[in-house]
Write a structure and sequence with these properties.
alpha/beta, Rossmann fold, seven-stranded parallel sheet, two-stranded antiparallel sheet, 9 strands, 16% strand, binds nicotinamide-adenine-dinucleotide
């Protein structure tokens, strides 16, 4: 049997011609993911609410010869998610992969220091965009009888000082499992990649930005740094590999789940966290 294996084809272009949406791909893990998916042959939809960073990612992909479009929409609302899905269908006629990457804690502090509005903003950032995008894409994938959804989780579900964000990510783990069970019969796979602490060297938009151009206030610097350092030390102490990750390491796990190499894998979580 080994005589028939084409070594060049194995793994090299796993996403050839697959239409792949990555939300929040203007920077960070999302950006590394679209670069990886384009390398693997995907047709890419760069999605972000910040036009400047979405354009930067899109232009970078174009210079590498990728087939790519940019869609700017705010995914805190269902209508924003629908816009993304409808414009993708207008451009490419199908959706094979949706990566729900938008998210990220806004604050790091003990739960009693969050006010009501801050808790709502954390859920709006890290739970709702994934809920809305899943809801908007499922009818398309059901019609196709095919699709792969990858949600972004986090190790915050077992860490300090991000209770509202961790609640969002816990919700995403539940959503992943339930949707995998409800929609497997339509050939749709739903999985989660849960990163550990990942350095984002070229972040354009800060986590404190709640709308383009609008930032919320953090605690005084010294206090927020103290919580941040304690949080990082706590997660490091739980980790086997004892270092922070890179966006490219997350992108590799996401691309695997998107590809047909993972075609019998659904409802699972890959903890891409150095063994946390
Ligand atoms: N970086 C880490 O250490 C880390 C660790 C664990 C989990 N994660 C998860 O990985 C994902 C990506 O993290 P990151 O650090 O690369 O994020 P990031 O904050 O660097 O980038 C997020 C992108 O999403 C966009 N965005 C935010 N809200 C949006 C909205 N409502 N609509 C459209 N676009 C929006 C931002 O403009 C930004 O470009 C998140 O879900 C995060 O929770 C990250």
């Amino acid at each position: 049997m080994t005589d028939n294996i084409d070594i060049r084809a194995a793994g090299a272009r796993r996403l050839k011609d697959k239409v792949c949406i990555v939300t929040g791909s203007g920077q960070g893990i999302g950006k590394a993911t679209v670069l990886r998916m384009a390398q693997e042959g995907g047709k890419i939809v760069v999605s972000d609410r910040i036009d400047e960073s979405a354009s930067k990612t899109t232009n970078e992909l174009k210079t590498h010869g990728a087939d790519v479009i940019k869609i700017v929409s705010d995914l805190t609302t269902f209508s924003g998610a629908q816009e993304l899905i409808e414009q993708t269908i207008d451009a490419y006629g199908r959706i094979d992969v949706l990566v729900n990457n938008v998210g990220g804690t806004i604050w790091m502090k003990p739960f009693h220091l969050y006010n009501e509005k801050e808790i709502e903003l954390e859920l709006e950032r890290s739970l709702k965009p994934t809920l809305w995008c899943c809801r908007a894409v499922l009818p398309i994938m059901m019609n196709q009888n095919q699709g792969s959804i990858i949600n972004l989780g986090s190790q915050s579900v077992r860490g300090l000082y991000r209770a509202p964000y961790a609640s969002s990510k816990g919700g995403i783990l539940a959503l992943t499992k339930v949707l995998s069970m409800e929609y497997g019969r339509y050939g749709i796979r739903v999985n989660t990649v849960s990163p550990g602490g990942t350095d984002i060297p070229d972040r354009i938009t800060s986590r404190l930005t709640i709308k383009p151009g609008i930032e919320v206030k953090d605690l005084p610097k010294e206090e927020s740094e103290r919580y941040r350092e304690e949080m990082i030390a706590d997660s490091r102490s739980q980790q086997a590999l004892r270092r922070r990750g890179t966006p490219e390491e997350q992108a590799a796990a996401i691309a695997f789940l998107a590809s047909d190499d993972a075609e019998f894998i659904t409802g699972e979580v890959i903890n891409c966290s150095g063994g946390q």
